[in-house]
Amino acid sequence: MIRFFFRLMATISLAVAVIMAVLDATRSIAADQIVVTALSASWQSVSPGSYAASEAAVSEVLAPYAWDPVIMTLLSAPGFAVFLVLALLLYMIGRRPERRTGRFAPI
């Protein structure tokens, strides 16, 4: 059940990564140059209230300096790359272990 949850979340993350990559590709074709949207810009355009609330929560709970150098580094990365890496990590967590059957496997 837990593996299913991780694989489901990996599939959703992969779908978001593909959607963000298609949006960047469409913008790149329209602008006649490579356009890569940062995750923070995408988040602020979708839900500016949750962006501000998460900034306030991180600054209050952890430390004020945790938002700017640490989290802003992650949020300045391209959105499709962040979700692609997240999908890979979630898939690796949720994958089935290999069966150890064969000629040299312990019985």
Describe this structure in words.
This protein is mainly α. The protein folds into two domains: about 1-35 and about 80-95; about 40-75, no CATH class. The protein has five helices and no strands. It has helices at about 1-30, 40-45, 50-60, 65-75, 80-95. Helix 1 packs antiparallel against helix 5 (about 80-95), helix 2 crosses helix 3 and helix 3 crosses helix 4 (about 65-75). The longest helix is centred in the first third of the chain and has 30 residues, at about 1-30. The model has no long low-confidence stretch (mean pLDDT about 90).
Biggest sheet architecture: none
Radius of gyration: 19 Å
Residue windows where pLDDT falls under 50 for at least 5 positions = none
Count the domains.
2
